[in-house]
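Changelog excerpt

This revision adds worked examples to the README so contributors can see how folded entries look when concatenated. The first example is reproduced verbatim below.
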Amino acid sequence: MAWDEWEQLKAEALARRQGHMQLNSLAPAGGPGGGDVGTLKSSTSRKKAAVKVLQEDIRPGTDKAGGHADESSGSTVREFSGWDTGSGLKGAHAEWELQVEGLKGRLGRDQTALEQTKQHFQYVDHGVKSRADQVDTGRAGRREA
């Protein structure tokens, strides 16, 4: 294939793509992946349950697992002190601690976000209503003839 022909084919393909727009769409209601299309659902009870699980199970469990690994790794690092294995374990342990702290921070932020969701939805609803109330429908200034 000659270079000019290749360039022409590329230009034609680009022109076809630019002149055509395709939007992704939702699955039809009741079909695979479908359901209540266009309906935002938020369950206060489910959010409260998720917050409870985060607060009472997941976050304390993360603390416990991280602490257990700290104890085990610390003693192993001491046993291998002076060896390359000991310094390698020490580096791996430091990275583990960073990862555990990052996870704990993320879980805390998730819990806070779930706790504040209802309030945020209310603010959005009030904001939308406030802006909708400001829309001039044009009826006040018209007179019927």
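The second example, added in the same revision:
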Amino acid sequence: MISVETTSNSSILIITPQGPLERQDFETIGKEFDQAIVSSGKVTGLMIKMKSFPGWENFEAIATHLSFVAGHHRLIERIAVATDNSFLKLVPGLASYFVHPKIQVFDLSETEQAIFWLETGR
């Protein structure tokens, strides 16, 4: 299960996993992603908010996740990861070698700063 919100200007998606990731979660994200593109012409940023990574429900969910990333990462300018988990703070650094967007990590309490960075790049 996953929660997807958009900011008032519809160019930033905020994703909050609420349990193991499922194939349907990426369909939900994809629909919101497409709506953001229609509404504002682009997806300026994506914020992933999570205390800890909940894992995937099954292999199908992993495959769908990888497919979503492969098909969408070039359409996003910036990704903010808001977490207090030490391990999760390391993952974006590794991911930056494989995906297009700039990635920055924030503490979970810094979501306002994360949104500002997603909007402005500063």
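Reviewer comment on example two: The two ends are 31 Å apart (CA to CA). The chain is about 45% helix and 25% strand.
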